Amino acid sequence: LVDNEMEDFIRQLEHQISRLAGVLSLEKMITASGGKIFATNGEKADFQTTLKKCKEVGGSIAAPRNPGENDAILYFVKKFNAYAYLGIKESLIPSNFQFLDGTQLSYTNWHLSEPSGKGEE
After folding, report:
1. d(CA 52, CA 36)
2. d(C-alpha 61, C-alpha 55), whole Å
3. Is 100 in contact with 63 (CB distance < 8 Å)?
4. d(C-alpha 114, C-alpha 90), whole Å
5. Distance CA 33, CA 39 (A)
6. What single string gives the DSSP state of each residue in 9-56?
7. Any idea what DSSP says for residue 84?
8. What is the pLDDT along the chain (121 residues), one digit of tens a residue?
9. 104, 96 in Cβ contact below 8 A?
10. Closest Cα partner for 31 from 85, 90, 72, 92?
11. Sign of dihedral through CA atoms 97, 100, 64, 50?
12. What is the pTM of this model?
């Protein structure tokens, strides 16, 4: 009986999550790529505030690792006609960028001479 109750509870949660994802998708506040969910609240903020808000909800600032993820981020850039912070930073070596956790980038799709490290890309 306990297993059946747990299975029912899990199905209900899955249904609720699916409905919420659908609503967010309709509101164009969420998109997905490669099993990852990309979301925004549409508010403008500085990098530190953005980092804090992402952590508060159990997420992280988006850092594209392939063309599909880059397109997911670009979707919000176009929708809000605004730049997006990425989860990357300049390493100790000038003009060499890495993920926030210090690992090397495996994918880039930047304009020539970007990012310049000035925080205005």
Report:
1. 19
2. 8
3. yes
4. 12
5. 11
6. HHHHHHHHHHHHHHHHHHTT-EEEETTEEEE-------HHHHHHHHHH
7. -
8. 578 888 999 999 998 888 777 666 656 788 888 888 898 888 889 999 999 988 888 889 999 999 999 999 999 999 889 889 999 998 888 878 899 999 999 898 888 777 765 555 4
9. no
10. 72
11. negative
12. 0.74
> In what helix (H) or strand (E) does residue 90 lie, and over which residues does it extend?
strand 88-90
Which three-class secondary structure state does DSSP give residue 89?
strand
The closest of 115, 106, 112, 121 to 66, measured between CA atoms, is 106
Contact 76, 31 (CB under 8 A): yes
CA dist 8 and 2 (Å) reads 10
